[in-house]
Amino acid sequence: MRELRLSLAAVVLTGIILFPIYWMLVTASVPSHIVLSRSPPLIPQWSDMTFAAYAGVLGRRPVGTWLVNSVVVACASVALSLVIATLAGYSLSRFRSRAQEASGLTLLVSKMLPGSLIVIPFYIMFANAGLVNNRLALVIANTSVGVPFATWMMKGFFDGIPPDMDAAARIDGCNRMQALWYVVLPAAKPGIAACAVYLFIVAWADFVFARTLVTDPRLWTVTTGLASFVGEHNVDWPGLMAAGTLSMLPVFILFLLLEPFLVSGLSAGSVK
Amino acid sequence: MGMARPISRMEREDRRFAFVLLAPALVATGLLILYPMYLVVMLSLREGKSMNFLDSSGLPLGLSHYRDVLSDPATWASAVTTLVYTAGSMGPAFLGGFAFALLLNERFPGRRWLRSLALLPWAVPGVLVSVLFLWLLDASYGIVNAALRDLGLISRDVAWFTDERTAMAAVIAPTIWKSMPFFTLTILAALQAVPEELYEAARMDGANRLQRLRFVTWPAVRGAAVLALVLNTLWAFREFDIIFATTGGGPYRATETLGIRAYQEAFSYFEIGRACVLGMVMLAFAMVLVLAARRPLQKEFF
Hints:
Distance between the termini of chain B: 37 Å
Shape of chain B: globular
Helix content of chain B: over 70%
Oligomer: heterodimer
CATH architecture of the largest domain in chain A: Orthogonal Bundle
Structural class of chain B: mainly alpha
Distance between the termini of chain A: 38 Å
Number of strands of chain B: 0
CATH class of chain B: Mainly Alpha
Order of helices and strands of chain A: HHHHHHHHHHHHH
Structural class of chain A: mainly alpha
Number of helices of chain A: 13
Largest interface: A-B, 102 and 104 residues
CATH topology of the largest domain in chain A: MetI-like fold
Largest sheet of chain B: none
Shape of chain A: globular
Largest sheet of chain A: none
């Protein structure tokens, strides 16, 4: 009985928590006259389902281009940050040095630095380098956020892999790089995957860099695109919710595939 | 003697290898964190305003921007706004996240699924969070107003984001929504590490539910809870996306936090010096918080 009550309470609360996402999906999938009403139905009829809002918004706005830009920028940011952070994380985990303390401090400083502040020197640096309105600028800017926490995460994962493994590989004739590449990295795969997901979620969400360093609408990412709906005289809500749903697709997919990693990683508390 | 040499060579090679692996991260940190911070400090120290947004190096150094910004009442109004926003969102998010973690720590069918689902808002990009709440709280067609009308709680539509009196609450709501999962997850992880025997012992000593929470649960999760609170507070303090994409700091500066203000000074008024001073003020506040919370932070980061 107690179990059932708890279960019910948790389901209801989760439902309330997820309501904004549910309402986005509903708004995007029913005809606009149903949701643009003074008393919209909480649970619409199945027979009312339509993809008109998706078709409409894809026709009127370059949502596809935004998504492609976001995918390009996010994937490149993940790749760059992950390579840097994996090497650095391994170094910090295996070799004692002063850099260890510095890496914790760097992470803390990066958590204190407001994006809306750091983007000012970034704008100046990238403009002087001729990189404004270039997706490379966004990749580099995202790396500045990604490297500190990804390095810290990877160090944690490598700490969990016994150094005996490297030593055994060395005895078998590997040099240091080979030991890392053929023995340690395969063992660290789950950690690398989790780290990649975090990096992706963070880069995917970036708004302040994308809005500031890129002004050409053809290079907008999906966050800049979504923000451009706001403030218009007549906001196209079903279209906006359809675009929002599309922008969540990669995140939903990652969630389905990698949820256990996410929970354990987030519990470790290094990402925020 | 014969033994010492190969070992020291090994060590030297280890060191070199460690450094080579670390080098890209050092370059990234230097170029993308330290150098930009140096630029911010230097820009905050330039007198006057350069005609060229990209080059302030011709201006003399001085403290005039600090004098102007620190004596401007609008700065302190923004500081108060930032603190209200941060405390107003972190308080409820912490309590809500804690309560939900206690619930998910109980044994019942399906809790693993609910735990993952409840994590979802954390992964939603800030701009999309803004858009979702703009829609929920829309004055004419928002479902929140519709529900409040049905319940008879309001007679006229509330324009949550554009009414000065409700705008702060309107930006706090999405912030709570996005930050709660982090509290839930970190506190839940700590709860699951509490040994069951502790609760049994407390029960045998006649402790009631509230006493068990106060004397068994809280001491066990305090470290994790405080750390989550500090990290989330640092995040909310510099949060930009949610406010910028909903109210942009308005109406009448009702939601203009220091972060929003710094951005507007730089990219709407091209007052880079002022913007950088505002950024330094933010960093000073963050530093106070970090120093106050240095014990839990030290455990996590050093």
